[in-house]
Amino acid sequence: MNKILCSLVALALAGLSVSASAACPDFLNQEYRKLHSTAVESVCRDEAKAYLLVNTASHCGFTPQFKGLEQLYQRFKDQGLVVVGFASDDFKQENKDEAKAADICYINYGVTFTMLAPTHVRGDQANPTFKVLGAASSEPAWNFNKYLVSADGTRIQHFGSFVEPADKKLVAAISDELSQ
């Protein structure tokens, strides 16, 4: 036991890491404040085999997609899917009161995946994650764009607002990415 502890301490002192997050690409290795919280969390997860990153808004015609996103998360989380919702008011449909926005997500739709506080997802003010997503595929034209990203960040697939979470193309893409 002492040898293991000494080895871990030596690795830490050497600046090495045994965490998978060290392999996380810079655009995913970003910290954002969680919705209606002071806690800050990284998008990057050790358990991730794929990420589904979604720009969301609490007062949008697509807001009911939260239910389907939660179903996708529950279906695939044990296989390594990480779902992260990026609340945004870029299209003027996010609740100005984060507590009310959180209620819509967590109470009305039962969201258990990570939801982040409002941030920009398009244009010059886009957060670092969405700058890369937009450049690699296309910037969100509206709320509830879905970006399926490989754990190493080398594969990015974009699914627009009208692609429902249960859409066969999206589900197949998730399954394929998780089997890589």
Automatic annotation (TrEMBL):
GO BP, one annotated term: cellular response to oxidative stress
Name of this protein: Glutathione peroxidase
Assigned keywords, A-Z: Oxidoreductase, Peroxidase, Signal
Active site: C60
CDD domains membership: GSH_Peroxidase (cd00340)
InterPro entries: Glutathione_peroxidase (IPR000889), Thioredoxin-like_sf (IPR036249)
Family annotation (Pfam families): GSHPx
Position of the signal peptide: 1-22
Any one GO MF annotation of this record: peroxidase activity
Family: Belongs to the glutathione peroxidase family.
SUPFAM superfamilies noted in UniProt: Thioredoxin-like
